[in-house]
C-alpha cells in the first residue's frame, strides 16, 4: 500500500534533447554529470548499440522524460530580461511561463493515467492557439508524467494561461482512480455538454466571420456548428452553436461578457443574444457521391480532377515523400518502438496521439522533437522526429506485419494530410470544402473554422451574398425573420458531419462570393489559390 501521492515535478526550461541518428537506447542518469543531475532518462541513438528498454529504466517501469531545468520550482519568478511567473503550485498541472515573447512556456502534467489523456491534452492546447514545439511522455499505465514546450502561434492570440491550466487540470483523472486512494464521493461526475445558441446580427463586411470567430476563440467558446445568412440590405445573421470551455455560459455575467466583447470589436450597431440550444444535435452533411469520393480518398491527387480543384503545390508534393514510419521490436522485450520522421505542421502531435488512441495503441514512452532548420510557422517545412514505445491494448507488442502495415498507412495519412481541402462548383456558384476526421470519441479538431475563415479573409473573399427566396427560420424556439427586405440568403457557411471510408468526418462548407476583383468560376488559377491558401493556413504556415 502507498499512502502518499507522487510529488509533482517542477517545471522549467529543459536543455535541448540529444539528436537521434539511428537507434534508441535509454541512458540512466549519472550523479557525477551535472546534466544528468537535473534530467531524467534521455533517449539517444548510437549506431547498433542497445541499452536497457524503457520498461527497465526506472522504478515501477516508468522511464521519466527529461525534466525541465532553469528554475527552482513552481511558483518562482523566472529571471532574465522580463519577469515571468509560474502558474500553479502543488497541482497536477504546473506551468512555467516564458520570460519574453517567443520564449517557450513549459507545461508539466503529473497525474494518474487514463486512455487517450495525451490526445485530450494536446487537443486543448491546440484549442488555445498554441504550438507544441516538443514534448516528452512517460507512463507505467497507472501514473503519467508529460511535459509540453509551447508557444503561441501568433502574436494576436491572447492566451489565458490560468484558464488553460484549469482546463488541463479538469482533464486529469482524480487521485481516487488509483486503487490505493479513496474516492471522494462529494466530487460530482462530469455531465453532458451544454450547448448554446449565439445569435448575432450585424452589417456585413469582408472578414466579418473570421473576426467573430477570433473573438469567440479568445473567450474559449468552442464552435460546433455555424449557419451564416446574408440579406439584401447588407445585414448578416450568424447562428453559432457553441459550448463554453469555462462552463460558465449559463450565467448572465458570462453572456454579457460575450456580447460586450463582440460589441467592442464590431461596433454598437450589432445585436447579440445567447440562449440555451435545447435539443441540439450535430448536423449531417450530404455531399454528391463523386465529390465525397474525391474529398475522402486516402491519397492526395497531384493534378486537378474533373469534379474539383484540389491540386498539390510543389512544396506539398515534396513533403509527401519525406514521411517515414518504422517499427522496431528488438530494443525492448515488452514494447514496440515506432519511429516517425515527417514534416512539421500544425497539430502534428495531436494527430499522432489521436491516431494511436483510435487504433487502440497504448504509448508508454514518447519523445517528440523538431528540427530547428525549418519551421511551419515561417512557411517552410521543418522536420519532426518522433519515438514512441507502444503496446497493443491487449498488452502485447505490435509484431503482426499486417497490423504494422495498417498502422503505418494510417499514420502516414494523418501526418501527411489530416485535413482535406477542395473547391467545387455548386451550379453557377463556388464552394470551399474543408474536412477533418472525427475522433472515435466523437470530438472534432479545434480551430478548423478559425483557420478556414482566416484564409478567406486574407484573400479578400466574402461569403456568398446573392439573394434567394424569403423564408422564416425557427431554431430552439426562436423565430428569425429577414431584416428590411423580403429576400434572404440562408446557410452560406455551415458545419456538418458525414460518414465515409469507414470513418466519420467533420465537413465545413463555405459558399464563396465570385467577385470581379477575384473571379472563381472562370479562373482555375484563383480556385487553386484558394485551396493552397486554405491548406497552408490549416497546416500552420501563416499562423
Automatic annotation (TrEMBL):
Pfam families: ACR10_N (PF24914), ACT (PF01842), ACT_ACR9_3rd (PF24931), ACT_ACR9_C (PF24926). Residues 1-68 are annotated as: Disordered. GO terms for molecular function: amino acid binding. Residues 197-277 form the ACT domain. PROSITE patterns: ACT (PS51671). Keywords: Repeat. Binds amino acids. This is ACT domain-containing protein ACR.
